[in-house]
Structure formats: C-alpha cells, structure tokens
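Pilot study result, target chain (114 residues):
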Amino acid sequence: MKKRDYSINTLYILVCLWILSGCASNHYSRVQDNHVVFYLKNPDAKEVYFVSSLDHYQYNKAFLEESGIWAHTSPMNTEFSYFYIIDGVITIPDCDVTVQDDFGGRNCVFSPES
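Predicted structure:
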C-alpha cells in the first residue's frame, strides 16, 4: 500500500509541475535607448507579426533570433496597445496590462512610464 501512495504522490507532483511550467512567461520586453524590444518565445512559429496602435495596426514582421525567440523593436515615446499574429492567428501574450479592443477581445498595453 505504501508503494502505491508513493506513486500517486509522485504523479501528483509531476502534474503540478507540468501545469505550472505552462505559466512561465514566453513574452517580455527590454528598453534599449529610445526603443523597446518585444520578445516572444515560440520556436514552432513559421511567421510572426507585431501589430500595434502605433501605426494603426499595420503588420510588422518580427525577426527570428536564437532559440526560437522572435523580436520586434518599437519606439517608446508614447503608450500603445499591441498583439501578435502567429502563423495567421491573432495571439495575445501574457502581459501585465491589457485593454479591451473594439471587437470584444483584449490587447496588451505598453507604457513608457512602466
């Protein structure tokens, strides 16, 4: 009976770790001079676009860097909302601040004051 309890506890711990690993952020940004660089980790993506209110939601191609990380550089002189299009699918990454869009969804918000 003890051996079975050990197996159930081990399985429980592994499932919890698996669930929590999915919570790790795959999206972050870094300020460099007068710009902000957004990074999105998605090694399986074939094409990634960064879309923001800065230029009236034009598609801006993100560039693939090492280890499946996509990057896009934007000016950081004003607050703006943004999202990604990954292989044709609109994707809202995990972000600290969001805003409701005109279509019932949410977009991330970047603020230079943050």
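One observation from the pilot: The chain has one helix and ten strands. A full batch analysis is planned for the follow-on phase.
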